[in-house]
Fold this sequence. Notes:
This protein is α+β, with helices and mostly antiparallel strands. The protein contains 11 helices and 19 strands. The site of the ligand Nc1nc2c(c(=O)[nH]1)N[C@H]1C(S)=C(S)[C@@H](COP(=O)(O)O)O[C@H]1N2 has 17 residues, from loops.
Amino acid sequence: xxxxxxxxxxxxxxxxxxxxxxxxxxxxxxxxxxxxxxxxxxxxxxxxxxxxxxxxxxxxxxxxxxxxxxxxxxxxxxxxxxxxxxxxxxxxxxxxxxxxxxxxxxxxxxxxxxxxxxxxxxxxxxxxxxxxxxxxxxxxxxxxxxxxxxxxxxxxxxxxxxxxxxxxxxxxxxxxxxxxxxxxxxxxxxxxxxxxxxxxxxxxxxxxxxxxxxxxxxxxxxxxxxxxxxxxxxxxxxxxxxxxxxxxxxxxxxxxxxxxxxxxxxxxxxxxxxxxxxxxxxxxxxxxxxxxxxxxxxxxxxxxxxxxxxxxxxxxxxxxxxxxxxxxxxxxxxxxxxxxxxxxxxxxxxxxxxxxxxxxxxxxxxxxxxxxxxxxxxxxxxxxxxxxxxxxxxxxxxxxxxxxxxxxxxxxxxxxxxxxxxxxxxxxxxxxxxxxxxxxxxxxxxxxxxxxxxxxxxxxxxxxxxxxxxxxxxxxxxxxxxxxxxxxxxxxxxxxxxxxxxxxxxxxxxxxxxx
Length: 515
Ligand SMILES: Nc1nc2c(c(=O)[nH]1)N[C@H]1C(S)=C(S)[C@@H](COP(=O)(O)O)O[C@H]1N2
Ligand SMILES: [Mo]
C-alpha cells in the first residue's frame, strides 16, 4: 500500500529506551519530592497501596498463600515490571509521532495523582509529588523523542552521529539522575526520627511484676516452636508497603464517639498508667491449616477495660472502631474489650523492648482470643465507640467476617512435611485455643487410633501449648495427623474450612518417611 511516508519510523530499541527512561525518571522525581512532603505521596507507593486496597479477595488470598509474607516484595517488583513495560509501550506507540506516548504518560500521571490524593492520609501538598513526576516524565519524553527523530533524519554530514550521541548522553544522564533521585527520596522518607524516638523511649517497666516463665513450656529441642517468639521471628501481616513513621512524642489516641467523656491519651499519659505484662498468642485469620502465621510474645501495656471505664461507654455502642495512622480500620466487639477477664491491652512493649516499628510502634492493640484483623490495630491513633451497623472496618468491607474469635487449632512442626527421620523421632508441634485453653492433644499415625500426646506446661489460657508424642515408628512412609481438644470440651473436627471469612480449620497432617 503506497502511502506517502513523510516521517521515518524510529527503531524499536530507540523508542523503547526513550519510553522506559522517561517513565523511570518521572517515578524517581515523584519519589524524591515525596521524600520532602510525605512518604505516602510517592506515586510508586501510592499506586501500590491502592492496588493492595483494591485487590479482590481471591487474588489477595492467592498472593498470601503463594508468596506468604513476601507478597509485598512480589507486588512491588511486579509493579516495577508493569510500569517499565508501560514505559516501553509509550515508546513503541511513538515510532512516528511522540503524541500517543505522551498521551499515555499523561493518563498514567493522572492515575498516579488520583492514587496519591485518595490515600486516606493524603495531605494537601501530596499532589505535588505525582504532578512533578508527570511534568518530569512528559518533558523528558518530548525532549528525548525529538532527539531521536533528529538522529533519524537523513543527512550527509555528521549530524546523525551528533544527535545520536546527544540522545544517548541525555538518556544516560536521565537514568543516572533517576537512580540518584529515587535513593535520595528513600533516604528522606526514612529521616522521620521514628527509630530515634524508639531508642529514646528507654526502659519501660511493668507496674505489676510478671511471673517468671515456668519450666517445660516447649519441646523446642524436639522441633516444636519456642514458647516465646523473638520479635524478629514474630509473623507480620499488614497492608503497608511502607512502615508508618510515628514518633512516641507525637502520638495521640483520641477516644470518642458514644462515650460520656471524650479522652485524648498521650505517650506520657499512657506510660504513667498501670502497666501489666503478659504473654499472648496472636494469629492471623489468613493462616492456613499448618501455616506459620502464629506467634507468641510478652506484651506490656494498659488494660483497655480501664480506659473504656474512664470514658464511660454508652450501652448502644457495640463496636470499638479503631484506626491506625495510615487509615487502616478495625472493628472489635465492645463487650470483648470491657471484659475484665479478657485483658485486652494498648501495648507499648514487646518481649522487653519498645514495640518494633513493624509491629505497631509506638502503640498497638492486642486482644487475646481474636484474630488480628478484628483486634490488633498497629500504629493506633483513633478509637471510636460506635455500632457495627454504623461502621464497617477495612477487612469487613472486603468480605471477611465481622466477628472472628480464634478457632481451636493444632499444627505438627516435626517431622516436617516429607521429612526423612529416624525411627524414634518424636512427633511434636503446637495447639492453641486462646481464652479457652488446651485440654488435650491427640495424634494419629497412619489412620490408626488417636493417641494422647504429652503437653507442655500451660502458661495461661491465652497462649499456645506444645505437644509431643514419643514412639518407635516402623521404617517406611507414614502420615501423622493432630487434633486439639479445648477446655470447653470442643474437639477439632476433620472438616477442612478455608481461611475466608473467619479462619481455617481442619486437622493438620504430614507425611514423613522413617529411614
Ligand atoms: N494498622 C494496621 N494494623 C493491623 C493490620 C494492618 O494491616 N494495619 N493487620 C492486622 C492483622 S490482619 C494482623 S493478623 C495483625 C498482625 O500483627 P503483627 O504484624 O504484629 O503480627 O495486625 C493487625 N493490625
Ligand atoms: Mo491477619
